[in-house]
Design a protein that fits this description.
Belongs to the UPF0677 family. By secondary structure, this protein is of the alpha/beta class. It has twelve helices and seven strands. The protein folds into two domains: 61 residues, no CATH class; 233 residues, Rossmann fold. It is globular.
Length: 331
Amino acid sequence: MNGSLPDHHNWPQPGLLYSEAVRELHATIENDWDSVKQSACQTAAGRALWKHVVHDPLAELFAGETHLNNFYEKIKKDLLNNAREVSGVILAVRTLWFESKLEAAVNSFGGGAQVVLLGAGMDARAYRLECLKESDVYEIDFPEVMQMKDTLLQAAMESINEASQLTLTAKSLRRVAADMRDEDWFKKLRESGFIPEKNTIWILEGIIYYLPHSQAMGVLKTIADNCRITQTVLLADFMNKQSTSLSATNFHFYSDWPDHLLPSLGFSDVKLSQIGDPDADYGLFHDPHNLFNKLRGLPRSIQNHPDDGTPCRRLYLVQASGSPNQTISRE
């Protein structure tokens, strides 16, 4: 990628080729779901509107017209104002980072592994990533989210335009209806066919900071315990404390030092990146004075920018791994 972005006249618009059944389903989402559940559709909208860098043919279906149009208007406004960061760029970079690290992890396991997407929302990787063709994929989310996802796919099968995108790429896919805030989510995962002794890649993308602290730590500890049994990889993004102030009602859990937290839980190898780092840039930050470069140049311990006093809101992209013969003792 060369870092150039389309202008507001040429930015790819959503197709909006929806059947009446799909429109009715999205009306239910907009009327009945809270903001946390609707964030799954917002994420899909971001992927759909950054389709010049993110290939996700099902994103428009899962986003819905309202979320697509709202996101598109934000992007147009940013481009017209020559914003240093265009709406959705973090989401695009995050998506590309997770998929790059997922592919590398799957390949390190020889192609076959279990992949667990916690808080999967409207993720469609099981339908589009070739690296998952020998992997068993498990998606976990609220029961109503998993049910709606199935229903949207069924409705889309009636459309010739969508049917070709509905072929599963992964070896298998199981949807697990569970609330990660409840202690029985791991039991439900096992009941769906998950094998703790099999090499596993866990994906916590855009989800951990929505959980209260005790529940988030419980999820991380459950995953870390897997390191004692088999080769385990965790891919996750963490907000620092200042970032949670963006939405005090939705964001709860934070870690200023996830690369210290995860080893204390039992992971033996942790690598941390910030948006804009060499492996988390993808040529998408065209303005050298963008927010992320400003933050990367400051020590992570600084909470407010010395130039203007604004909060240093950081998003950390973290890869952690462990195995029975490498697991370190907990502090």
